[in-house]
Amino acid sequence: MVLTESTRAAVAAYFAGVVERALRRRIELEPWDLEQEKSDRPIDFALVPEEVWKASKFERSYTTSRGSAWEEIAVLIAADTFGHAERNSRYVGELHQEQLAQIQRILNELDSRARAPDWDEELASVLEAETGDLVQVTVVADVHVWDDHGRREFFEVKAPRPNSDQTKVSKEKMLKLSTMLGRTCAYYALPYNPYGTRAAYAHSPPGRWFDMRADEVVLMGNEFWDHLGGSGTLAEVFEILEAVGAPLRDRIRRDYLGLD
């Protein structure tokens, strides 16, 4: 077992809470009203079975309740292994004017495809640009973890198929953070990889900003969770999900969908 009992309990409680909130909304606060739904969407109900729309309504409530689940779980795990972790963390530091200009040049060249992404080369060029006045810079990272011995890391946690604009913003933040700390300390993290392996990753938009197969700052699936919690962390998270989900799935079928 990789995770401590307290962390396993916290992860289980978080996911159980997600589903409990969705159930409460759909059963107690805003119960299904078939006649009202038909009145609001007569064409849809004439063509598609009621069960589809009822399930869809639960799905929307569940998704809203879930929020940024992967970030929340990352913080729970990292707080145990690093000692400290938080979401939407604001970090303030200083960069030289030329370093900011170099970051913008890199982004412009990547956007126009005038250069290929190469994290090590890009960061080195920004670190070398130590000219001009110092400027205070604030960066808000998705997840920030640190220990009591000076180790500090940041993670931009994105859906497995992120769009180009999201990735550009993450790349800029990562370059600023790593330059302020003078080393690679920020990572682009995909909590799971629907393509199975890094070599097979085929979603093209983030490839404009990162070499998705070679950049070591890109962490996919197990790479991300092993980095935070140790080898086997993601598998253990899914074990917890299955254990928590079994009785909840039965409740959704019985109490909301009305299935035996």
Structural class, by secondary structure, is alpha/beta
Task: Calculate Rg over CA atoms.
Answer: 22 Å
Spell out the helices and strands N to C. HHHHHEHHEEHEEHH
Averaging pLDDT over every residue, what do you get?
A: 96
Low-confidence stretches: none
Number of helices: 10
Annotation, overall tally of beta strands: 5
Largest sheet: 5 strands, mixed
**Beta-strand content:** 15-25%
Task: Give the strand line-up of the largest sheet.
Answer: 1-2-3-4-5
For the termini, the CA-CA separation is 35 Å
Q: Tell me the overall shape.
A: globular
Share of helix among residues? 55-70%
Number of folding domains? 2
Oligomer status: single chain
Describe this structure in words.
With 260 residues, the chain is an alpha/beta fold. 55% of the residues lie in helices and 15% in strands.
